[in-house]
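The following block was generated as part of the benchmark described in Methods. Ligand: flavin mononucleotide.
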Amino acid sequence: MKYLILNGSTRRGNTWKIAGLARERLLERDAAAVFEEIHLSELQLPFCIGCSNCFRLGGQYCPHWEKLIRVLNAFDGADGIIVASATFNLRETGMLKNLLDHMCYLLHRPRFFTRKALVITSVGGVGGGSAAKSIAGTLLGIGFNRCYRLSLGTASWNAYAPGEKHKSRIKKATDRFYKDVASGKIHYPSTSILIPYNLFRGMGVNYAPGTEYETEDGIYWIEPRRQKRAYDTDIPLTIIQKAVGGIFYVLGKTFGKRSIVTYKKSLEITGLPSERIDM
Ligand SMILES: Cc1cc2nc3c(=O)[nH]c(=O)nc-3n(C[C@H](O)[C@H](O)[C@H](O)COP(=O)(O)O)c2cc1C
């Protein structure tokens, strides 16, 4: 199995210690496990400038695509993904939030349907759970099949030393994640994922080629495998889920028609060459 460890912390501190123990546990379970590391502090991804090229034209039109594609390729190439972050102001670090901002277009056009994640947050005292929930929310929204969460209170800025209780919690969470990744099992999506997916599916057809305001969303959602099914073809669905998805598809299509999003931007706002912001 191949694992990616994405370190969203600004340094290799408390959070990295926890991620390191998770990695050790994965190696205990599978001596042949292979790891790739991405440290966001080294990736140096500039802030998302809000040009919306990714939504309208495609991710490859992001001015920071060369850096973003490194992470997306690593997601594609891993069986299991560990996303680790310190808790800053009750959320993930700004650095990780910035990466997730760059992935927002994938909420419109999800793609990582068979991927599974373990989200690890460390926290001084308060907010680690909400930070983990925030990260997992985005990962599930861009398609991830399952996200396990682990949040540990470090009560220290620098000298965190995981005790037996924390080691046991790390082992437990890592084992659950490992078993799921190794099983290759694909889970049914939750209703909270199915609803936005199908609203986007319905809204998306209003942007298809040949409509007044064509975008990448339109191209993505009119693909026959997406048009005909309430979730990706790799993922199982119950009959009820198919019906619920169908209802929200119709709602998205109907109400989406009434308010077309145009992403009009001015040069002063984006600072990008005019050919990229001509709509
Ligand atoms: C800018 C900043 C904001 C923080 N915000 C919180 C917070 O909201 N709640 C909390 O309990 N701890 C907070 N902390 C403490 C860290 O979450 C905690 O020390 C964490 O283990 C640091 O992880 P790291 O060593 O990987 O950077 C904050 C620390 C910093 C530097």
